[in-house]
Specification:
Blueprint (H helix, E strand, L loop, with lengths): L1 H10 L4 E5 L7 H9 L13 H5 L10 E8 L4 E3 L17 H19 L5 E4 L7 H7 L4 E2 L5 E2 L7 E8 L20 H5 L5 E3 L2 E2 L5 H7 L6 H6 L9 H4 L10 E3 L4 H5 L3 H8 L9 H12 L1
Parallel strand pairs: 3-10
Antiparallel strand pairs: 1-2, 2-7, 4-7, 5-6, 8-9
The chain binds iron/sulfur cluster (SF4) (2 copies).
Length: 295
């Protein structure tokens, strides 16, 4: 079953897959102390359901196996014809990755359920309180970089993560969690434009441009606007400098111009971008982000 399953994940486009046993996640203490330091800005949802984050068997009672999956996104930066960009993960030409990955994971979950009659599964794509990078690390997919991203040696960090929790105790080869391979590199910490990456593995979300341009309801202030460069949705700086990512700086014009965004009404935005990752921020927030850069 295992080899069939692994083949199917590859056919579906996943680039990494690994198994782990549910238990207290790696780096749980680091996560708890980060919360105690109030470094999660106003993302109070991160403080909720802490007992579920500590024990994934509470997310799916009887869970015996966790499958972690990595799905790639393009390393080309989406840009506007007038030279402004957005974070790669947003993939504005595609349906929001939550929907896409849920569909793909459902196929895999069905496969497990067909072989193991009576087993139950739960799919998580950023949709449940689970420390997904910890389990991906335990499963051997990659290691946690100093930029807090999961890194697959030989591939980099431009991918999404998803998990399938399963009640069946699948048999799989045990692996050791992958050790950090950053060595003495601190490029991500050194090049963070706002100093949000205060030290390795330690982010002050309230200063991170990803938070400021997507999650924060207030407009980005002028000072942070100057640090945004040309990127008006998210920020990839701490990944772009990472030597594990390809150094190709290719960009792809797939967005309307910033003037078109500034003149865009909600109706058209919903029609064109309502099913994409942009929907989380909404057009009014995107407009204020552009204005923060243009000053
Ligand atoms: S996403 Fe940007 S602002 Fe946030 S930590 Fe990385 S480099 Fe810093
Ligand atoms: S930039 Fe360097 S320190 Fe940061 S995650 Fe990549 S290898 Fe690690």
């Amino acid at each position: 079953m295992l080899s069939q399953f692994i083949d199917r994940t590859r056919d579906l486009g996943f680039i990494g897959m690994g198994f782990s046993i549910p238990g207290k996640p790696l780096y749980f203490e680091r996560f708890s102390s980060w919360l105690s330091d109030h470094k999660n800005a106003d993302m109070s949802w991160l403080e909720r359901n802490i007992e579920l984050r500590e024990d994934p068997t509470k997310l799916l009672p009887g869970c015996r196996t966790i499958i972690s999956l990595a799905f790639p996104y393009s390393s080309q930066k989406p840009v506007t014809p007038d030279g402004y960009s957005v974070s790669r993960y947003s993939q504005p030409g595609e349906k929001d990755y939550h929907y896409r990955l849920k569909g793909l994971c459902s196929e895999l979950a069905d496969m497990v359920n067909e072989i193991h009659i009576g087993s139950r599964t739960r799919i998580c794509v950023d949709s449940a309180p689970i420390l997904e990078k910890s389990f991906a690390c335990s499963s051997g997919i990659g290691f946690m970089g100093k930029n807090n991203m999961l890194i697959m040696p030989g591939y980099g960090s431009y991918f999404y993560l998803a998990e399938i929790l399963i009640t069946e105790p699948l048999e799989f080869p045990q692996v050791e969690p992958m050790e950090n391979r950053c060595g003495s590199c601190t490029l991500c910490v050194d090049s963070c434009p706002t100093g949000a990456l205060e030290k390795p593995f330690y982010l002050d979300a309230s200063r991170c441009l990803s938070y400021l341009t997507i999650e924060q309801t207030e407009a980005v202030n002028r000072e942070d606007g100057r640090k945004m460069g040309d990127c008006f949705f998210g920020c990839d700086r701490c990944q772009e400098v990472c030597p594990f990512n390809s150094d190709e700086a290719s960009r792809q014009v797939i967005l309307p111009s910033t003037d078109e965004f500034l003149g865009m009404g909600n109706h058209y935005f919903k029609e064109r971008f309502g099913n994409t990752a942009f929907a989380r921020a909404g057009i009014e927030k995107i407009k204020t982000n552009i204005l923060a850069i243009k000053g």
